[in-house]
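Good morning,

Attaching, inline, the backbone tokens for the sequence recovery test we're adding to the shared suite. The designed sequence is right after.
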């Protein structure tokens, strides 16, 4: 009885095969097949519905563990700092002012830049070493004229030791500084100087220029500022600056006694006027090569 119930209630293998063959045939959606083909060709089966997971130990190519929106956002995120850095480099590059170059050198003597000596015949080598902030010293037999085209000319008379100012930027970094330790530094500003402020200091005082022709002389006893054109602000410190107009000078003794105000004497005025007469054209039109004095 028991065996008959079991044999009657359990279908045979032949019955199962017959039932399977009797099932209606199911066909996949053509659109699904086409999408599956494209995903397989692109290696992107992970995005297809019902796709099998990757085999253990074989991670996806580059986006393992990252949501798909993050994968597309990440490259743009990395590019932003690079683009910003490139923009900063471009702006600073375009802002750079003209380079200093030697316009005239004496036939004799030596010139030192930061302790390195150059002969008066080394114009090209000299030009490659001119930097804002460099200490330039000319021997007692030498004279050096430097040019920043359109901006200003500097003449270092024999025996002068001074710090070279940087050239101004086009839009910013337009406040410049230099220092005269000894000798005579003559300065002529050009058509591109407006908007620039040059502060020249010595042990005894400070000079601020916004466009002018001046000489700054210093020795162990005094600093004397002679103004041939325009107006310069001169004082023993930045707290007591006063204007000095064309044709006048202000001298500040090293012993701390009261400053001296006077008209420029001819022996001091003539070298300054000659400097402007000879070189002004080269400053304004940017022409000319380094020559001899």
């Amino acid at each position: 009885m028991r065996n008959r119930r079991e044999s009657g209630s359990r279908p045979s293998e032949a019955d199962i095969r017959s039932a399977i063959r009797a099932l209606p045939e199911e066909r996949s959606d053509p659109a699904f097949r086409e999408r599956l083909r494209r995903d397989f060709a692109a290696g992107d089966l992970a995005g297809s519905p019902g796709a099998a997971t990757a085999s253990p130990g074989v991670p996806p190519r580059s986006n393992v563990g990252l949501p798909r929106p993050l994968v597309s956002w990440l490259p743009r995120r990395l590019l932003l700092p690079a683009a910003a850095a490139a923009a900063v480099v471009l702006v600073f590059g375009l802002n750079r002012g003209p380079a200093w170059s030697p316009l005239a050198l004496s036939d004799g003597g030596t010139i030192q830049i930061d302790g390195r000596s150059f002969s008066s015949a080394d114009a090209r080598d000299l030009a490659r070493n001119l930097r804002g902030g460099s200490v330039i010293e000319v021997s007692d037999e030498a004279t050096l004229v430097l040019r920043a085209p359109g901006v200003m000319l500097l003449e270092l008379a024999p025996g002068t030791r001074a710090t070279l100012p940087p050239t101004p930027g086009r839009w910013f970094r337009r406040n410049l500084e230099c220092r005269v330790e000894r000798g005579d530094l003559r300065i002529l500003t050009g058509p591109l100087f407006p908007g620039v402020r040059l502060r020249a200091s010595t042990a005894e005082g400070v000079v601020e220029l916004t466009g002018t022709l001046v000489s700054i002389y210093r020795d162990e006893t005094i600093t004397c500022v002679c103004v041939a054109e325009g107006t310069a602000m001169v004082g023993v410190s930045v707290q007591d600056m006063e204007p000095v107009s064309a044709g006048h000078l202000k001298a500040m003794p090293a012993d701390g006694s009261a400053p001296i105000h006077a008209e420029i004497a001819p022996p001091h005025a003539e070298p300054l006027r000659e400097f402007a007469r000879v070189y002004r054209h080269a400053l304004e039109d940017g022409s000319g090569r380094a020559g001899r004095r």
